[in-house]
Amino acid sequence: MASIIKNVIVIGASGSIGPHIVSGLLENGFSVSVLTRITSSATFSSTVTVHRTDYSHASLVDAFKGQDAVVSTIATFSAPQQAGIIDAAVTAGVKRFIPSEYGVDTSLPQIAELLLPALPKQKTVEYLRTKESAGLSWTAVVVGGFFDFALQIPGFLEWNIPARTATIFDGGDVEFEMTNVAQIARGVAAALSSAHIEDTKNKYIYINSFTITQNQILAALEEATADKFAVTHSTKAELFKNAQDLLKSGKTSSSGSPAGSLELITAAIYGYGGLNEYSKTKGLWNEKLGLPKEDLKETVARIVNRSKASKK
């Protein structure tokens, strides 16, 4: 008999993807709680139950009691702390754990060489495998890059809509995977649904909004803005080398992450080393999970219109 997931607690619910996942779960009828630090000033909707924690084992177990699933959306650079969270989930009798993945395919062996900041994600799934016999199952959700989220941040992934600039790598015709944040939320909710809870048990699942190229994004942006973008050309190999040099410097970026991390992530998202081509190598779960098809031009137009509205 399939497990029924009703009560879900989300960790990192005030981050970049967390609020969207909370909304997606609520829209699909789940009873949703959020876990936040005692010291956090984040506020949440009255439709969710808030559990505050100091991240001690006892505190986490107390928060997880009665929860059927834990969805982790903590930041990449906090991923190593998930082992303690997993231990608490086992103690509390949680049925399903969704680790903080939501990126390129970290199941691949070349992750350690090509995207070292994401290695803790791979290690987290390895740790989850050791807990299967204790009754905790898992699902890792691979999404490529956050498409609409990324385009809204000037300079992120080398797109700058306000400045009308872009950097195109390797000619711009290499395909890669991108997913809108609402589609990610739909994928998580579908994975926990009674229809798919067994299908997704102890597996990586692969979803997207688009398999696209940089040149397709550029064309959509120029159509939506009615402007030409100033384009700089480079290669992913050069980007990767620069990122490695920055990492070796031991410096910290303005965001607090190791210098070079963002460049490594950018190279990976654009397909360096085969880390983001899973629609070809692994196959998509979109149709199986009932996820809608999304339109690139419509998404880009929405982002551009939102950018215009924010300037008024």
TrEMBL record:
InterPro entries: NAD(P)-bd_dom_sf, NmrA-like, NmrA/Isoflavone_reductase-like, PCBER-like. Pfam families: NmrA. One of its GO terms (molecular function) is oxidoreductase activity. Transmembrane segments: none annotated. Keywords: NADP, Oxidoreductase. Residues 6-242 form the NmrA-like domain. PANTHER family: NMRA-LIKE DOMAIN-CONTAINING PROTEIN-RELATED, NMRA-LIKE FAMILY PROTEIN. This is NmrA-like domain-containing protein. The lineage of its organism: Eukaryota, Fungi, Dikarya, Ascomycota, Pezizomycotina.
